[in-house]
Write a structure and sequence with these properties.
About 75% of the residues lie in helices and about 0% in strands. The chain has about 375 residues and is mainly alpha-helical. The protein has a single domain (about 1-365), classed as NCX, central ion-binding region (A middle domain of Talin 1), CATH 1.20.1420. It starts with a helix and ends with a helix.
Length: about 375
């Protein structure tokens, strides 16, 4: 019993998130010197790795696609809370924060996470195999949500800028939440098999994870779920703490203010990126795609309703419409995604194309 307790205490996946939250509490609201910023960044990286570990434990217990859904929704809920908090306290410079963050999340997930997953799987098995029915439905939902929430405001005429009028914002929020809820019902209910990993011959693989190790006990899974939430809180909180250093670096490099949102989005999405990469290396490409597209969907479907509610007490305009360059990148991402998903099989080429699209997004965000 003593040995078990000692192993629990010394397990880094348990101690690092707790220490990260302690550091978050000690540094919250303070101006951090460079040395402390380095310590915070170290624990941020450790919390990311711990979050991936606990997400995999939970996913192995509940099976797919519930496991991917847990991580995607957990990260997005905390990300939404961070966006709303920054918008309330940020003033005029945050009027486009929701748009920049959501668009960055869509580009990172639909090009970065998806492309990296396909690349890793194709390097291992020459061809990455996944279920086109489930992945195609997810991509269609992401495209619809992105268009309604980020493209339409650019062309509406009720307001002079790229923003919704109050009734339009309410409609977009209700439509986003309803569409996301419908997708979750389909994914976890009557068409759950569309989102399970498939073998090279197209048949559905086992749903519990790796097909060999026994699922963890209910107690271990519950503990991992709690530690996952702790780790994610630490990730988002510490990312906010290092954001002034990021802003200073961005300003020193003469980069646009919107690039700060890209860097923070990259940090916040690290747990999903690492989890998707590990799944792809284990030939669980469908799990990787569930994470990528599910995160993009949750980012829009939960952020827009939250922003609509927060706009009741937010001052100033709420800019949601994308600019010309962003619209072009979004359209190219959707078209490329469709061509990637339809066959249900992908090679190194498709993975490389999506990663180049991500590189183009990052470059043009830095040099618009």
């Amino acid at each position: 019993m003593l040995a078990l307790l000692r192993s629990r205490v010394t397990d880094w996946t348990l101690t690092v998130p707790v220490l990260a939250v302690v550091i978050l509490a000690l540094t919250w609201g303070r101006e951090l010197p460079p040395l402390v910023v380095g310590v915070v960044a170290t624990f941020l990286a450790g919390a990311v790795l711990a979050a991936v570990h606990h997400a995999e434990v939970v996913a192995h217990k509940v099976g797919e696609p519930f496991g991917s859904l847990v991580l995607a929704v957990a990260v997005t809920v905390i990300e939404v809370a961070l966006i709303v908090t920054l918008m309330i306290s940020g003033g005029d410079k945050t009027v486009s924060l929701a748009r920049d963050t959501v668009f960055a999340a869509v580009m990172i997930t639909c090009n970065g996470i998806l492309g990296l997953s396909l690349l890793l799987a194709a390097l291992r098995r020459r061809v990455a195999v996944f279920n086109p029915e489930g992945t195609g439905g997810a991509l269609a939902t992401v495209a619809t949500l992105a268009t309604l929430s980020l493209v339409v405001p650019t062309f509406t005429t009720s307001r002079p800028g790229p923003e919704f009028s109050p009734p339009q914002l309410v409609f977009a929020a209700v439509a986003s939440l309803a569409l996301y809820g419908l997708f979750v019902l389909v994914q976890t209910g009557r068409h759950r098999d569309y989102f399970l990993p498939v073998t090279s011959d197209g048949t559905v693989a086992d749903a519990d994870g790796d097909g060999h190790a026994d699922p963890p006990s209910a107690g271990a899974a519950l503990a991992s779920l709690i530690m996952l939430l702790v780790a994610l809180i630490a990730v988002v909180g510490l990312a906010k703490m290092v954001s002034p250093a990021i802003e200073a670096g961005v300003s020193a490099a003469n980069l646009p203010q919107a690039f700060v949102g890209v860097v923070i989005a990259l940090l916040v999405l690290l747990p999903e990126t690492l989890a998707a990469a590990r799944a792809a290396r284990r030939d669980r490409v469908q799990i990787s795609l569930n994470l990528a597209l599910g995160s993009a969907m949750a980012s829009i479907g939960l952020t827009i309703p939250a922003i609509a509610i927060a706009s009741i007490w937010l001052d100033g305009p709420l800019l949601l419409g994308l600019g010309g360059t962003q619209l072009t990148l979004l359209a190219l991402t959707v078209v490329t995604g469709v061509l990637t998903v339809v066959p249900g099989r992908a090679t190194l080429l498709q993975g490389g194309v999506h990663l180049v699209l991500l590189a183009a997004f990052v470059f043009l965000a830095a040099s618009p």
